[in-house]
Every structure is written in structure tokens, then in C-alpha cells.
Specification:
The chain is an alpha/beta fold. It folds into 2 domains: 119 residues, Aspartate Aminotransferase, domain 1 (Alpha-Beta Complex); 230 residues, Type I PLP-dependent aspartate aminotransferase-like (Major domain) (Aspartate Aminotransferase, domain 2, 3-Layer(aba) Sandwich), CATH 3.40.640. The chain is 46% helix and 15% strand. Strands 2-10-9-8-7-3-4 form a 7-stranded mixed sheet, sandwiched between helices. The protein has a two-stranded parallel ribbon with strand order 1-12. It is globular and about 60 Å long. The chain starts with 11 loop residues before the first helix and ends with a helix. The structure holds (2S)-2-hydroxybutanedioic acid (LMR). (2S)-2-hydroxybutanedioic acid binds next to loops. This is Aspartate/tyrosine/aromatic aminotransferase. One of its GO terms (cellular component) is cytosol. Homodimer.
Length: 390
């Protein structure tokens, strides 16, 4: 049987981890995969997470199964953090293995119940198209962002959604757009909410970077306005970045509807689909998030840690923008964009040269993970980027 299979290429983003690790240069710089790093280049376990793990170690009395939908307390606390208290809306959550697991279940649900069509603005996180394609959705793409001018193409987004059919799904990044860092203005969120409501579209909102953009509440304001406007919505949440628990694979999918019955029906389908895939989600990361969010002291410490990660990112953005300013007129955009990523107008050959000649690693799209910069590297990085960008 195996001889009937064609060998598959490695995921280019994940393959970068191996390429970077294999490079013996001590001054190499990793701007590749999206993990937060401190100024020493480390991704430490957050204090609040360590404290929660210690508590769990001391108090957890069983490793038996939790429930098909996962940990209900975790789900309630996470929804409160993301969705807030939506009057007149009902959310039903299912814990998932990471944000990717949430997107996969959402995509399965759309394939099962919706028009099977999803509108995706490009560029987007490459795995979006992979996940939606794997569940057989018909993915219709439109331009979200113009790389050479660093502009969000809002007219193109509105054109695509105005032409969408009732019940079509549309993928929306909640904040800290991956890969561009460029989001909607408050006015654009309003227009988006209006078209989604009028066309009766289903927003599938990917929330993977809450707290890394403008603030913990600010980063979900647009998401909340869409949920209020849409008759039904799906919200895929990742805890990987906001809690720094990447490898614990912790996330959730929430089905939001106008009635409890509709939300419960959606949840029962999500649970059934999970059961035939991985049965039940892993517990540890969700137990950690539950422990952090349900303790006033740990929650406060976690917020402080998240706020300081955001401050570091914003500081690095400003420094890089300043260092590029005398060679690239769009450099101020880098400071305005939010979250971990910006998408530079680089050719694939430029990216490969940066890798080979300078030990600077990024995917061939030209996306950079701002958190991978150390303060001391910025002048060197800017000096080699300027001739390529200018
Ligand atoms: C990224 O975009 O780098 C992260 O979301 C990691 C991943 O799984 O692709």
C-alpha cells in the first residue's frame, strides 16, 4: 500500500526550524516560525504558567478522562476572555488540540452544514488554505493586503463579501494578522459587521494572538462586534501564544448563535466529529489556563506578563522602523502593524540570500517574526534589508 503513496514535502514554515538549528553560525537570526522570544532569544515558560503547573502537580488527583467537549470550566473562562458577555447570544465551546484543531473542526462543521464555501483574504496563514482544503471546502480567495504598498485592500474584501451568498463562511483574523500584522480600522470593522449581517454570512474568526496587538480587550473588540452582528459565528481560539503553551496544543472552537438550542446542536456536531478524529482533547494546557484564569493572583500576573510581551514587540517594531527609515519609505508601517508578524516585499531569491549570506531566517514569503529580533541585532538586520526594500 505505501508504495502507492507519493512522498509529501515538509511544511515549509516548520522545515525552517530544522534549517535554522542546523546552521552553526553563532550570529544567526531566527525570524521564522511564530513563537514569542525574549531578548536572549528564549521562549521561557511564563511565571503564571509555572505556578499553575506547580499547583496542578500538587493537587491533581486523577488522569482519568474529563469530558468529550473537554474542560467546561476552561471553556467558560476562555469564552469570557474572548467573547465577553454577549447579551442575547449563546456560545457553545469544545476544547481542541490548539487553534489548528479548532479551525479543523470549524471547517468540518461548515462542510457538513453550510454552503461548503469559504471566503479567504490573501495573504493568510498558509495552513488556513491547507485545513479548509482538507475538509473539501470550496475556498474562494480575494486580496486582503498589497505587499508592495503595505496597504489593507478593504475595497477588495468588501467586494468579495458583498458578492457572497447567504450562509457562506468568511475567515476573519481577530487581531495581529498573520502574516501581515495589518488589521481593520474601527470603521472597517463596522462595515464588515454590516455586510456580514446583511448577507447572513458566517464569520469564522481566528483568534490566536489576543493581547499581542493593542491590548487584551482591544484585540477582541472587532471580533465581538462581528459576533453581535452575525446570526451565527464560529470562533477558533488558540492559547499557544497568549499563554506561551505552544506544545501543549490548547485551544477551543466556539459556536455562537441566537438561541441556546442552536448553539448546543452545533456543539453536539463538533463533539461527534472530534470523537471520530482524536476522541478527546489533551488536558494539561487547558488545566493550566483554567488554573491561571480562575485565580485572581495568577490572572493578574499572566496579564502583566502578556502586557510586557506586547510592550517588547511594540518597542522592537519602533526600533526596526527607525532603523529602516532612511532606506525604505514604508518603514513607518512596521511600527503601526501589530503582533508578531510583518510581511516584507522581498523576492524569494532575496530571502534565500539573507539565509545563505547573513544567517537571517524567514519563510520565502518575506514574513518576519518581530519577536525573533534581539535589540542588538536590529541595526545589522536593517542594514542588509534596506538595499532590498528601498
Ligand atoms: C506561525 O504562523 O508561524 C505559527 O502559527 C506556527 C504555525 O503552526 O504555523
Amino acid at each position: 500500500m505505501f508504495d502507492k503513496l507519493a512522498s509529501q514535502p515538509n511544511d515549509p514554515l516548520l522545515a525552517l526550524i530544522g534549517l535554522y538549528n542546523a546552521d552553526s553560525r553563532t550570529d544567526k537570526i531566527d525570524l521564522g516560525v511564530g513563537v514569542y522570544r525574549d531578548d536572549l532569544g528564549n521562549t521561557p515558560v511564563l511565571r503564571s504558567v509555572k505556578a499553575a503547573e506547580k499547583l496542578l502537580l500538587e493537587t491533581q488527583s486523577s488522569k482519568s478522562y474529563v469530558a468529550p467537549e473537554g474542560d467546561r470550566v476552561f471553556l467558560d473562562l476562555l469564552w469570557e476572555l474572548v467573547g465577553g458577555t454577549q447579551s442575547g447570544k449563546f456560545a457553545a465551546g469544545v476544547q481542541t488540540p490548539g487553534g489548528s484543531g479548532a479551525l479543523r473542526l470549524a471547517s468540518d462543521l461548515i462542510a457538513r452544514a453550510g454552503t461548503g464555501r469559504l471566503h479567504l483574504g490573501l495573504p493568510s496563514w498558509p495552513n488556513h488554505a491547507g485545513i479548509f482544503g482538507a475538509t473539501g471546502l470550496n475556498v474562494e480567495t480575494h486580496t486582503y493586503f498589497d505587499v508592495p504598498t503595505q496597504d489593507v485592500r478593504f475595497a477588495s474584501v468588501m467586494k468579495a463579501l458583498s458578492g457572497a451568498q447567504r450562509g457562506d463562511a468568511v475567515l476573519i483574523h481577530a487581531s495581529c494578522h498573520n502574516p501581515t500584522g495589518a488589521g481593520f480600522t474601527p470603521g472597517q470593522w463596522e462595515e464588515l459587521a454590516a455586510v456580514i449581517s446583511e448577507r447572513r454570512l458566517i464569520p469564522l474568526i481566528d483568534s490566536a494572538y489576543q493581547g499581542f496587538g493593542a491590548g487584551i480587550e482591544e484585540d477582541v473588540a472587532g471580533l465581538r462586534s462581528l459576533i453581535t452582528a452575525a446570526p451565527e459565528a464560529l470562533v477558533a481560539v488558540s492559547c499557544s501564544k497568549s499563554f506561551g503553551i505552544y506544545r501543549e496544543r490548547t485551544g477551543a472552537i466556539f459556536a455562537v448563535a441566537d438561541t441556546q438550542a442552536a448553539a448546543d446542536t452545533a456543539r453536539s456536531n463538533l463533539v461527534t466529529m472530534a470523537r471520530t478524529s482524536y476522541s478527546m482533547p489533551p488536558d494539561h494546557g487547558a488545566a493550566v489556563v483554567r488554573t491561571v484564569l480562575s485565580s485572581d493572583i495568577l490572572r493578574k500576573d499572566w496579564m502583566d506578563e502578556l502586557n510586557s510581551m506586547r510592550d517588547r514587540l511594540q518597542g522592537l517594531r519602533q526600533q526596526l522602523s527607525n532603523a529602516l527609515a532612511d532606506g525604505w519609505q514604508l518603514a513607518p508601517q512596521i511600527a503601526e502593524q501589530q503582533g508578531m508578524f510583518s510581511l516584507l516585499p522581498l523576492k524569494e531569491s532575496d530571502v534565500l540570500t539573507l539565509r545563505k549570506e547573513h544567517g537571517i531566517y524567514m519563510p520565502t514569503s518575506g514574513r518576519i517574526n518581530i519577536a525573533g529580533l534581539k535589540g542588538a541585532d536590529i541595526e545589522r538586520v536593517a542594514a542588509v534589508l534596506k538595499p532590498l526594500l528601498g
